[in-house]
């Protein structure tokens, strides 16, 4: 049984404000604030065509305490 393609987590920096943005395995985007436990304080984020998201290497996800 094939469940379809596995979606990966992606980490970005939103310019010009330099804020963390995460795309979760379901494809939803989240803005992470600069607090001790950012994932628990995440806010939904909807990128627009004008949104400048710079990809960040995946090893940074461990610094943010992401659950995946």
Report on this structure.
The chain is mostly beta strands. It is built from no helices and 5 strands. The protein has strands at residues 10-15, 19-23, 29-32, 43-44, 52-56. Strands 4-3-2-1-5 form a 5-stranded antiparallel beta sheet, with no helix packed on it. A hairpin with a 5-residue loop joins strand 2 (19-23) and strand 3 (29-32). It is globular and about 30 Å long.
Topology, pairings included?
Layout: E1 10-15, E2 19-23, E3 29-32, E4 43-44, E5 52-56
Antiparallel strand pairs: 1-2, 1-5, 2-3, 3-4
Cα Rg: 12 Å
What is the residue-averaged pLDDT? 87
Secondary-structure element pattern, one letter each: EEEEE
Please identify the structural class as seen in this structure: mainly beta
Give the helix proportion (percent range).
under 10%
Shape label: globular
Task: Calculate the terminal CA-CA distance, rounded to whole Å.
Answer: 23 Å
State the helix count. Answer: 0
Q: Count the beta strands.
A: 5
Spans with pLDDT under 50 lasting ≥5 residues?
none
- Biggest β-sheet strands, sense, barrel: 5 strands, antiparallel
Strand-residue proportion: 25-35%
Q: How are strands sequenced across the largest beta sheet?
A: 4-3-2-1-5
